[in-house]
Write a structure and sequence with these properties.
Blueprint: H1 2-9, H2 11-14, E1 20-21, E2 24-27, E3 36-40, E4 44-51, E5 55-62, E6 68-73, E7 81-88, E8 99-106, E9 113-115, H3 117-128, E10 132-139, E11 142-150, H4 156-168, H5 175-178, E12 180-184, H6 194-209, E13 213-221, H7 228-248, E14 256-260, H8 276-282, E15 284-291
Length: about 290
């Protein structure tokens, strides 16, 4: 660990030196080779930089999810374990001190670095401020060789603006978040509550955005309080309340299949209800999205 800490103190001087130093190889895109690429759709946005001789640094955000950062490489030289994430000053930013940010995990394989949302935001913040987020970890083949991988801030600002435009157009959710939905129903509830409407609005937004969604199935269920005939009618009313809301928001009614089962035993989540909690589980409407 002493070698790792020592290495960060003179990292800035290595930027103007050879790509491979006496302490180990350093990988980064210099001012001339630093390029950022933005690709995306309403489903995902990707901001990436090629790191010569190493691989790629990628910021990835899927609809409905936070942005995440990865380093990819064909063969990782870093040993699995804890690496130091630092912020280093590029050659053109004289007089700015480097700083250590955090210790992060390095894994084996082609994606040695996979940061969570918190650390990804820290990396983005350093790039926005013109610094070089840098990962330092000793080599798996030599503990005295410090492998250094840095992300260059050169040309980042314009690309980041494009990336933000992409993010602004993302759907509010992804398919896995709306593919299967259960709407709980309070005893005596006669209208859709605000939480349910927000859920249904997200379903509408996704179904309109993803042309591969070809059908929506709605199923109504009740608890066993009351007669079977009453419960069948209750499940019908509740299922069609959801049905009508989706249609009112622009979903093609031909896409929707609405069914209702009342207290049909095979669909009870809790077959022998004993408590209010048991009844709450059984009293529900489900919404399922299907796509090609």
């Amino acid at each position: 660990m002493k070698n790792v800490v020592k290495f960060t103190l003179y990292w800035a001087s290595l930027l103007s030196a050879s790509m491979v130093s006496a302490s180990g190889p350093s990988y980064y895109a210099d001012l001339q080779r630093s390029e950022w690429e933005v690709t995306g759709s309403i489903f995902e946005c990707r901001l990436s930089q090629e790191i010569p001789l190493y691989g790629e640094a990628v910021f990835y955000r899927q609809a409905g999810m936070p942005v995440l950062f990865t380093l990819t490489t064909s063969e990782s030289e870093m040993a699995a374990g804890k690496a130091l994430l630092t912020s280093a000053a590029p050659q053109w930013k004289q007089g700015v001190l480097d700083k250590d940010i955090a210790y992060i995990d390095v894994a084996e394989g082609e994606r040695p670095v996979n940061l969570d949302s918190k650390h990804t935001r820290l990396v983005l913040a350093e790039l926005v401020s013109g610094m070089m987020p840098t990962v330092v970890r000793h080599a798996w083949y030599n503990e005295d060789a410090a492998i250094t991988v840095a992300v260059s801030p050169a040309k980042f600002t314009a690309a980041y603006e494009q990336y933000q435009d992409c993010v602004a157009d993302l759907l509010p959710v992804n398919f896995s978040q709306v593919e299967r939905n259960t709407i709980p129903w309070r005893s005596g509830q006669e209208e859709l509550d605000q939480d349910t409407k927000r859920l249904l609005d997200n379903i509408v937004a996704y179904a309109k955005g993803d042309l591969s969604v070809n059908s929506i199935q709605i199923n109504g269920f009740t608890d066993t309080v009351g007669t079977a005939a009453q419960n069948l009618e209750l499940s019908r009313e509740r299922a069609f309340m959801v049905h009508s809301y989706l249609v009112s928001k622009g979903i093609d009614e031909a896409m929707i299949e609405t069914r209702y089962f009342g207290e049909t035993e095979e669909y009870l989540l809790v077959p022998n209800e004993r408590t209010a909690a048991d009844r709450n589980r059984n009293r529900r409407v489900t919404v399922l999205l299907r796509r090609d």
